[in-house]
Structures are given as C-alpha cells and as structure tokens.
Design goal:
With about 190 residues, the chain is of the alpha+beta class. It has four helices and nine strands; from the N terminus they run ααβββαββαββββ. The termini are far apart.
Length: about 190
C-alpha cells in the first residue's frame, strides 16, 4: 500500500512540475511580448499565469513579476520564476522531503516587443481617409478610454466590454499611432 501511495504522489508531483514549468514559460513569453505591461496583482499577466498553474496540485502564493535584464528593450531577457508548495499525501515521505515540498520553475525569453535601444522611433506616416490613428489610452480610466476610442472614429469592439470603468488602462493592443480601419477592435489591460 505504501509503494502504491508513493507511486501516486510521484505521478502527482510530476504533473505539478510539468504544469508549473508551463506556467513559467507562458509568463515569460507574455513578458517578452509586452515588456511594458502591468505585472502586478489583478493584471492580465497575473491572471494568465494563475490560470495556467491551476491544475498543478501545488499551492501558488503571489505571482512574481518578470525580471528583465538589462532592461525592457528588444534583445534583453525576461525571466519568470514561479515557486509553489506541493502537498505530499504519503505518510512518512513528507517527513523526509518536507511537506509541503517546494517546487519551482523558471523560464527566460528574449524581449521581442518594445523599443530597440539606440534606435529612434520613426514618425508614423499620416493615416489615409479609410484609416484612423490609434489613440493613446494608457493612463485613462476604462470608461474614458472607451469614449476616446469611439471619438477617434473606431466602430470595432472595445475589450473589456462593460465593467471595470473606474480602473486605469495600463496597456493596449494595437499600438498607439498605428493606422487602422474603423472596424478595428482594441484590447486594453487595466489595474
């Protein structure tokens, strides 16, 4: 019976390790694609990492933000390290290895979104009659950003839909100043 319990715990442990490693990779990928996003509690980053680690049989405390080296410019690295506590079910084994057992995973991606160090940002060409310039919504409340999106001439969807009106926009896709059709949709992150 003890050998069977150890085998079950080993299977659970391996599944948790795979899930936590995947969550770290997804977090690092997110950070590398959007290095200037918000990474704090309630952010899209934190929600994504938590959702990916939910099936891990491992208790995840706070989700640490990524660490960028040397900065958030293109070509730098973004590293995410996640640690959780795995509860062992087998009697006596927890006394040898500790219960809960601390599991950690780390992943690193090269930053591929943002500015390139030493390269000036070009002035965008003016939009034509069928395209509109994407306004800067960062820093506005979600309700003010939604109004600004519509005032700029866009008819596409604004995400989040209703709700979160008093929260502050921390990021947006598509980028500020890009020329897009009126039907373009936009997704904003907020905190």
């Amino acid at each position: 019976m003890l050998i069977l319990l150890i085998a079950v715990d080993f299977g659970r442990l391996f599944g948790a390790w795979v899930t936590i490693n995947n969550a770290a990779r997804i977090g690092a990928n997110y950070a590398a694609a959007a290095p200037t996003s918000s990474f704090g509690p309630g952010s899209a980053y934190e929600t994504t990492v938590r959702n990916e680690s939910n099936l891990s049989n491992c208790t995840l405390g706070s989700v640490p933000g990524p660490v960028f080296s040397p900065n958030t410019n293109v070509g730098s690295t973004g590293t995410v390290r996640i640690t959780c506590g795995f509860t062992i079910l087998t009697p006596f084994v927890g006394g040898f290895v500790g219960n809960p057992l601390s599991l950690s995973a780390s992943s690193q991606f090269i930053v591929r979104g943002g500015t390139i160090s030493g390269v000036p940002n070009p002035t965008p060409a003016p939009c034509d009659a069928t395209h509109f310039a994407v306004p800067n919504l960062v820093g506005l409340t979600v309700s003010a950003a939604r109004a600004s999106w519509t005032a700029a001439g866009f008819t596409g969807s604004f995400t989040p839909g209703s709700g979160h009106n008093g929260q502050t926009v921390t990021g947006q896709v598509p980028d500020v100043g890009s020329c897009r059709l009126a039907s373009q949709a936009i997704v904003v992150t907020y905190s």
